[in-house]
Amino acid sequence: MYDKGLHDLGDGCHAWLQPDGGWGWSNSGLITGGGESLMVDTLFDLALTRAMLEGIRPVTDTSPVRTLVNTHSDGDHVFGNELVRDAEIVATEAAAALMTQEEVEGLAALKKLPGPRGDFVRKVFGPFEFEGITATPPTRTFSGETSLDVGGREVRLIQVGPAHTPGDAIVQVPDARLLYAGDVLFIGGTPIVWAGPVERWIAACDLMLELPVDRIVPGHGPVGAKPDVARMREYLVFVQQEAGKRFEDGLDVDAAIASIDLGEWSGLNESSRIAQNVVNVYDHRDPDREPANRLDVLGRIAALEGFTV
Ligand SMILES: [Zn+2]
Predict the structure, then answer these.
(1) Does a structural domain hold residue 94?
(2) Which residue range or ranges hold the Metallo-beta-lactamase domain (predicted)?
(3) Residue 184: helix, strand or coil by DSSP?
């Protein structure tokens, strides 16, 4: 069942889901124990996060949020942090370094870009309000692994980035056999490799497949399980092989993007993310290459989405 709002997953664990899981429509989680809660990620703006905080009151009235974990630094997982600022906020050191006011203002500025890139941003981020957000970074950081105590219950944080972003972490609740994966798992949508290399994301998939968990809450999409991880891993291997082959053949990046036939993957939502994914493979294969500029990539994605001058 993929309805907007609070989902009781049993064992004192919840998910707050936002269909359809496309650009900016992220999920959040709530783990309760001993009369307190740990929240996994906030949402993309203050209104959405306020609505979620209201919607989870049946849980948090008796188990207030004492800890917030940000799985990574992307705005759709952290821009609501200021509304949970009384909690301890935890993220990897690499993610924390990117949770700045400049990031907030950079995204707000993208909505004002002229031309096809701006048109695309206004289409996908139109429903979100970035003005008035105050960046609220973590109060505690870690690298590698750490464990948190939620009212006597163990919650494990495992850094798997750089993969989707430089500082990705996953959140395991061992006694519930449950995992909150953040954006190292997309279900129904196309994963986007901002940081990479893609090999590290594939390794993160292997780790998720090995963990003793039965259910997985992705950063975007409905609640799933290991077969969803295996499926997304296949897409990442496809990207690695197809982009890698074209790099070896000497194709330039635009020719590579244009010549890849997505085949079975064309049915995933946001399939135009292939543009960034190919660029990322090229960036890592050739250290002398001018690093990808997000604005250029946005132009390529916008073009694949049919936005032209
Ligand atoms: Zn996200």
Answers:
(1) yes
(2) 25-220
(3) strand
